[in-house]
Each structure stands twice: as C-alpha cells, then as structure tokens.
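Dear colleagues,

I hope this message finds you well. In preparation for our joint manuscript, I am sending the Peptidase S1 domain-containing protein (Allacma fusca) sequence together with its predicted structure, so that both groups work from identical material. I would be grateful if you could confirm receipt.
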Amino acid sequence: VRAFYGYKDYLNFNNRNIAPACLPYRLAGQTERKATIVASGWGTTTAGGQNAPSLRKDVCHGDSGGSIDEKIDGKWYAVGVVSYGHGCAHKDEAGVYTRVSEYTSWIEQNTGINNFCKA
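The corresponding structure tokens are as follows:
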C-alpha cells in the first residue's frame, strides 16, 4: 500500500507493506504516454465476489481510493487513484482514475508533508 494522505504520524514505514509514495511532478500536463502501470487493491476479484485473500493486480469493487503506480528510474510513483469502473477486468470497459500529477500541490498543502520523493 502506498500512502500519501494525512496519516504520516500513524504509519510504520518499517512495515514491508507500507511505503511513502513518490509524487509524479514532471508528469503534470502529459495526457498520453506509453507506460506500464500497476493498479493494486484488496477489493473483490469478480463483480459481486469475495474480497481478495492476497494482493492482486487490477481493480474491482472495493478498490476505490487505491493507488495506480508506475516505476520510473527504479522508484514507484503514485500516478493515479482508482475512482470507479463497470464490472471487473473487462477488456472493453474502461476504468476511471484520477491523475495524481494534477494534484501534487494540493496533496502537499493538505497533508502538511513536504518531503515526498519527486519525479
């Protein structure tokens, strides 16, 4: 889980499952690029199904607010946030996400954290 909003005093970054997010500053304004991204979450694995017993790659019900990550120069960056979609993992159905690079200043101002790693 990559966390960047408001819980810096409560998170134990020594846990291998929790890491601070890098913010993608240099990607602001870019609307089309070829990149491999990873959408991860702990929601269901099929529409109306049970929650995943282990971390899976893709989004489904219960994954809203989860991170969409891209590896840039060996570091993972939170490039998106899961919003919603129709069904789960349907190749002809688009998922809807929020582009983090458009909100980096807002994130810093509202979390009070100014030492994010930056791209």
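For the figure legend, we might mention the following. The longest helix spans residues 104-111. The helical segments are 104-111.

With kind regards,
E.M.
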